[in-house]
Design goal:
Number of domains: 4
Number of strands: 32
CATH architecture of the largest domain: Orthogonal Bundle
Strand content: 25-35%
CATH superfamily of the largest domain: Neutral Protease Domain 2
Largest sheet: 9 strands, mixed
Radius of gyration: 28 Å
Structural class: alpha+beta
CATH topology of the largest domain: Neutral Protease, domain 2
Low-confidence stretches: 1-30
Mean pLDDT: 95
Length: about 650
């Protein structure tokens, strides 16, 4: 019976006693233990957490946890809101096998009916330690989630394997973690090791906030590189790979990574870590990733990162981006990220600073260090400018609203991303910060720049790891200290505006303009090769996968108006079997003519012919110098001395 039906039967019975009504209400709404709110007080005692990561064949992590407790009600939480994920992405569906025992006897648990990441128990009288066992059933294939365990590589993310007591601020809970690895494996992590006995590593005791923020990469094939030789504060590149050949980096490749660290330290004028560990996985099987942490970062790319260096220039902005987050996102954080634990919702309103400015510095540091050439950096900027200039969804949805996408969409695939928009605060945010940088340079006669903002805003409290939170007003005030200007409406108009087009004023102020030619840049060629796709976004209004599948349809573009969608496959072009070069040739041949390009398209079990009325040829974005203007991009990409 529903509570509504219960009330319908109860209300007419006014003569019934109050006690009868109270009893009925109790059945209608059974009492539930509330999840205790976090309080800034130390948790009494240290939690011992043991992780067994040796089951490579089944990709299962097994945990045993010992928790000091007192008799009475208690609630445990599985981390839900993960800061670097910007949303409620805790992998609860892969958390299984939970059992509690006290003095060898089972203790039952119940899940909270509202906060389903919470588990209630009642600790029996006389019990001082509660034992817990559970597993993290890591994904077996990408359809279940990102692969974090293979036969050669393990990526341990502590939120996936950790329970913690509710009612306490995360940094006031002490945890003594240990990890058992497959025989002979090596590892990299920002956690400090107490001792290693065989394949069991015991780490020093850390507070829960530090533990959750300190992932580990381990592997059968492992190599560590010192990226700041002779420095008092260590910076290491810890590399794991599918095979030992992928670990062989040339001296000049490591030199570029060292230059990236050097350029970041010169830019920010400080550091906010006791040591820093880049975790880099080179693999076809281990899931790709780029995720920031205060003293480390998780980075996952293809195994040819070093061995085919010239083909992978565009991917080399990843490490500078994640490294920048140690300053922006981890040390300095938006005020909405100031939460007491990992089950309190995050507010993302300033992700265009947190991620957008970091995206900007990632590109700049890549160019300044030589990880990326200036030409490569310009080509990447052209691709970004073109992509966001063609976003049709700007008409109805401001970039500011996309900060909610990690909560709304959780990075699930979208049917019409060009219209729906998706986390545009990253790259469109970077375009806005280029606009800010060039505006400062222009107003100051090129005497000041966003570099000065970076040193003033992120360079405070050198060596401190205590987060310093900021608001929109703090950002505006810091910009005004660098260069007087009406920054608040300048930023608001770009963050909350509807175009037309992307915010490209910074590009023009830098002395460059976006143009389209019939020849792809090296960056676009490399991207097509990596993704095994063909990009017709700026001509036909869609891309085509290796199997002929259509993707990334531009809303109201040529393909859209012809009725194409992302669930169709091109079978033939003008009666010829589809290949990328066949479609490219057809687009070239149709230029300046009148005959349409005919596609034979398969959707489900249906074949149909689509006529594309397009005659402007192939179009690929690139940057072109504006004559008679200063080249501020060259100055922005120039290494600091």
């Amino acid at each position: 019976m529903t509570s509504h039906a219960m009330f319908s039967r109860l209300l007419p019975s006014a003569a019934k006693s109050a006690s009868t009504l109270a009893l009925a209400l109790a059945f209608a709404f059974p009492a539930q233990a509330a999840v205790p709110a976090p309080v800034d007080q130390p948790y009494p005692g240290t939690i011992v957490l043991k992780v067994d990561a040796t089951n490579l064949s089944q990709q299962i992590f097994r945990m045993r946890m010992s928790v000091p407790v007192k008799p009475g009600p208690m609630t445990f939480l599985y981390p839900q809101w993960l800061p670097a994920n910007h949303g409620p992405s805790g992998p609860l569906t892969q958390f299984a096998g939970l059992k509690f025992t006290a003095n060898g006897k089972p203790v039952e648990w119940t899940r909270d009916p509202v906060e389903v990441f919470a588990f209630h128990v009642t600790v029996p009288e006389g019990v001082t330690t509660l034992e817990a066992e559970y597993q993290f059933l890591s994904p077996l294939d990408p359809g279940q989630g990102r692969i974090v365990m293979t036969d050669d590589i393990i990526g341990l993310q502590w939120p996936s394997v950790t329970l913690y007591p509710a009612g306490y601020v995360a940094r006031r809970i002490q945890v003594q973690p240990s990890l058992t690895l497959p025989a002979g494996w090596q590892y990299g992590t920002a956690l400090e090791t107490a001792q290693r006995t065989g394949d069991e590593i015991q780490f020093k005791t850390h507070d829960l906030e530090t533990l959750i923020d300190s992932p580990l990469f381990a592997g059968r094939h492992f190599k560590q590189f010192d990226l700041d030789p002779g420095a008092k504060v260590r910076v290491s590149l810890n590399v794991v790979a599918d095979n030992p050949e992928s670990l062989e980096a040339k001296p000049e490749q490591i030199a570029a990574h060292r230059a990236m660290v050097d350029q970041a330290l010169k830019l920010f004028g400080s550091h906010h870590y006791q040591h820093y560990d880049f975790l880099l996985a080179l693999s076809d099987d281990f899931g790709g990733i780029g995720r920031e942490h205060h003293q480390s970062s998780e980075n996952g790319v293809k195994p040819n990162y070093f061995t085919e260096w010239t083909r992978n220039e565009a991917t080399r902005e990843l490490l500078p981006h994640e490294y920048t987050h140690s300053w922006n996102g981890k040390f300095r954080r938006p005020a909405g990220q100031n939460v007491p634990n990992f089950n309190t919702p995050l507010q993302n309103e300033l992700l265009w600073v947190y991620e957008g400015q970091t995206q900007y510095w990632g590109g700049v540091l890549g160019a300044r260090s030589g990880l990326v050439s200036q030409a490569g950096a310009r080509d990447a900027l052209a691709a970004t400018a073109a992509r966001y200039d063609s976003v049709a969804g700007r008409a109805w949805r401001a970039m500011q609203d996309t900060v909610n996408d990690p909560i709304i969409a959780g990075r699930r695939a979208l049917a019409w991303s060009n219209w729906q928009r998706s986390e545009d605060y990253y790259s469109e945010g970077a375009l806005i910060w280029l606009d800010v940088d060039t505006r400062i340079r222009e107003l100051s006669g090129d005497k000041r720049s966003l570099d000065d903002f970076a040193r003033a805003f992120y360079g405070i409290d050198k060596g401190s790891m205590l987060p310093a939170f900021y608001t929109f007003e703090d950002v505006v005030a810091a910009l005004n200290k660098v260069q007087k200007f009406d920054w608040a409406p300048f930023l608001r108009s770009r963050v909350e505006g509807h175009g037309p087009g992307a915010p490209l004023d910074g590009l023009a102020r830098a002395g460059w303009k976006l143009v389209y030619t019939d020849t792809p840049t090296d960056t676009i060629k490399a991207a097509e090769e990596r993704s095994k796709s063909a990009d017709f976004s700026y001509s036909l209004g869609f891309s085509v996968r290796a199997d002929g599948g259509i993707s990334n349809v531009v809303w109201d573009g040529v393909g859209f108006r012809a009725g194409l969608a992302g669930n169709a496959t091109i079978v033939a072009v003008n009666s010829k079997v589809y290949k990328p070069e066949v479609l490219k040739a057809a687009v070239k041949a149709a230029k300046g003519g009148k005959a349409p390009i005919e596609l034979l398209v398969k959707k489900g079990n249906t074949l149909r012919t689509i006529a594309l009325d397009y005659h402007d040829g192939l179009r690929y974005p690139r940057l072109e110098r504006i004559p008679g203007t200063p080249d501020r991009l060259e100055a922005i990409y120039k290494a600091l001395k």
